[in-house]
Amino acid sequence: MRTKSEERRQHIVNVAAGVFEEVGFDKASMAEIAQRVGGSKATLYNYFSSKEELFVAVMDRSAHRLMGSVFDHLERPGPLREVLVNIGVQYIEGLLSPDMVAFGRMAIAEGDRSDVGRLVFEKGISKGWGKMRDFLAKLLAAQGRADVDAMTAAWHFKALVESELREKRQLGVYRDMPPATTVRTTVSQGVDLWLRGYGLDADTVLSATGKDQPR
């Protein structure tokens, strides 16, 4: 059960998300956010020491929703290729959603002006993909590839399933979510390249615990 303080913090994050989406990070102010929350700036600073920290909390909220649904697939049994494709599709559908695209653009724009980009990477992206690293570490070890750095393998997987989709969405080539068939085809191609690159058996059947099962 959440305390009133936790509920208040979440309310601030939700309100701030709306402000950032409306006016962008640069034009958003703690005063405006405090006004919409219904309190003073002093109250806001009791929860967040800076606008940057608040923005990272907003990104973390969105990333948690995205990665939580993605990594639900890690617990599901099935052929390895099928499991990885489903993970990739779920990830891309979240990554290219309107709010994630908007916040991603803001973080990139702030990269050279503040610590926002670094904090988003360290507390959001890197932390989230650590779960994929743990999953891949077990998988690689089971298939005789314990020599492979699992975090590197996770970054390679991420890059391959994103392929050209992320750039096209971020740059506005895709104004909306790409067609589902395009997403699945691109992700499938990325997964196939990843499996071949690491020399893994695509037909390996995973149990509900993520361990290999005899075919």
Automatic annotation (TrEMBL):
The keyword Transcription applies. Keywords: DNA-binding, Transcription, Transcription regulation. InterPro entries: Homeodomain-like_sf, HTH-type_TetR-like_transc_reg, HTH_TetR, TetR_C_Proteobacteria. GO terms for molecular function: DNA-binding transcription factor activity; transcription cis-regulatory region binding. Residues 6-66 form the HTH tetR-type domain. The keyword DNA-binding applies. Residues 29-48 bind DNA. This is Transcriptional regulator, TetR family. The lineage of its organism: Bacteria, Pseudomonadati, Pseudomonadota, Betaproteobacteria, Burkholderiales.
